[in-house]
Amino acid sequence: MNPQDGPPADITDLLLDAICTVDEQGHFLAIRGACEAIFGYRPDEMLGKRMIEFVYEGDRQRTLQAVDRIMDGYLQRHFENRYVRKDGRLVHIMWSARWYPEDGVRVAVARDITHRSEAAAMAETLPAADTGPAWRLGSAPPRLVPPGLSAVPLSAQDHTVLLALATGGECVRRQAIVKALGEDYLQYDQRRLDTQMRRLRRKVEQACGLQLPVATVRGVGYRVYQRIEVCD
C-alpha cells in the first residue's frame, strides 16, 4: 500500500467499536467495525433485522424512548443498554447516535463496556464473602440445610437452580442457570428467573429466618457469598 493513497477502504474493520446504520423503522442497513466481537453475530446475520430484537427485554422500553428522542433531533451520547449476544451472554453497550433526516437513516456507534459495568455492579451490590459455616444442598430428598438449622424442603426446580449456583463458582451467569433448567436462553423469559429467585429467597427466609446467601449481580447473574456444599 502506498502511504500517499491514504487508508484502505476496509479500515473500519480495525475499529474496536461498531458503527451501525439503521432505517427509520430500526432495521440494520449496515454494520462496520467490531460487529462480531461485540454482538457475536456477523454483520450479514443482523442486516435487515430490527435492532430492538437484539436488545435485552428488560432494556427495550427505555431504548425505544431513547430512539424517540434521537428521531426528534437529539444527539444521543453515552446511552447504555444491554444486548443479547449470539451465544446468549449479555453485553453492556454504550451508544452515541444521531438521526440524519435528509438521508432517512440513524447512525450509531456502539462500544462494549461489559467489563466496566460488571465491575461496578460487583462493587455496588455484593456483600463481602463469608467464610462461616457452609449451607448444605441435598438431593434425596431435595433440601437446603442452613448452618445449625433444620432442612428446608425444595422443589426439583429449586434444587436445580441452587445446584447451578453451588457449583458455578463465585459469580454465576443467568445463562448457566437457564441452561441447567434445560431451557433456551434466547427464548427464555427472564422474568421467570427473577420470579423464581424471589420465591426461593422468600421460602428460605420464612422457613428458617435466614437470608439465602445469594446476591444479584446486575446484568450478569448471581453471586453466592456463603458456601453451599453439595451432599448426597
Automatic annotation (TrEMBL):
Pfam families linked: PAS_9, Trans_reg_C
KW DNA-binding (keyword) present: yes
PROSITE patterns hit by this protein: PAS
GO terms, molecular function: DNA binding
PAS domain location: 11-74
Keywords from the named record: DNA-binding
Stored Gene3D superfamilies: PAS domain (3.30.450.20), Winged helix-like DNA-binding domain superfamily/Winged helix DNA-binding domain (1.10.10.10)
Entry-linked CDD domains: PAS (cd00130)
Protein name (record): PAS domain S-box protein
